[in-house]
């Protein structure tokens, strides 16, 4: 029995201690995903675009300066009858004109709509930052969930390996008993069937692990064929408190922050709509040059240059009640955003409370399964001693073996669920640290 548990201990030595160069930690997986993940990269581009759009010029606050140039030429057969009755006629009469200059236009007042639009652009930039944070949070959660799923499957693989060790030793015992006439050939065959079943289960588990590693490589946006080891221990925080989580969620939950920001955008849209009731005042100025030539006419050539300036003002008096409709719609959008905030608060708090209950339950299950695993180990020890002296059958020993293997599996599963519960809670709060 000591030999068996010595072999089991070897199986559960972290492989990373022997092959540390191939170990991928959870922190490393997240870091690689943050650098390569396509969703993160695409969202970062959206943030840059929103930042580029948040300018005074895009909001209509700055003036527009335009350079103009035009030239026209004509070659015509002309015939003119003067008021005196004189007829003037010229074939291939040439007429040329050219104009160039600069013009300045500046809206200096539009009912303060330009300032509302500028703040809206900045809020959209802030929304882009929040969306990036949301994508990062989701990606980190996906990577960690996938990583610890691999950790679970690796641990279950080691559990299967431990069962194979026990079955192999049991097969040797059954063969020895058969050789000395204390067991039948049927017992040997039954033990061999059990060993084959464990080996078959091991092959399926290896396939599952390989597929999971491919999926994690995809999340990290790197070569899908890269193989790696993982750290086999589940380390989770047992001290999360519900009141602290709810308080953090009020200020850090991404979904709630996005809805609050949407309300602010609705308020700015309402302000922009209301600004259209007020007049729009625009300054106009320019400096222009013009030149023209005519082969036939009172003026054969003219040139002009100089400054032009002026002011225009316009005001909406009646537009078929569309202004009133737009204001009412904008008001409803603000009120709708307020309701969305309250609904989201309640939904988020309810989700956190349910997730916290699962977290507490999984922590308790982990502690219970730790005790069960110790009991199953003691039971297997006693059963093996009895099996070797022939006081119990191979079937009874197989039951004890399966109980021990199942106890180890349940312990790993409970630890895995506790870790996932912790990750889920932190993701809901909006602060998923490693």
From TrEMBL:
Keywords (A to Z) from UniProt: Cell outer membrane, Membrane, Signal, Transmembrane, Transmembrane beta strand, Transport
Keyword Cytoplasm: no
Similarity section: Belongs to the outer membrane factor (OMF) (TC 1.B.17) family.
Name of the protein: TolC family protein
Gene3D superfamilies per record: Outer membrane efflux proteins (OEP)
Organism (species): Sphingobacterium anhuiense
Location of this chain's protein in the cell: Cell outer membrane
InterPro entries registered for this protein in UniProt: OMP_efflux, TolC-like
First and last residue of the signal peptide: 1-20
Tagged with keyword Magnesium: no
Alphabetized PANTHER family for the sequence: OUTER MEMBRANE PROTEIN TOLC
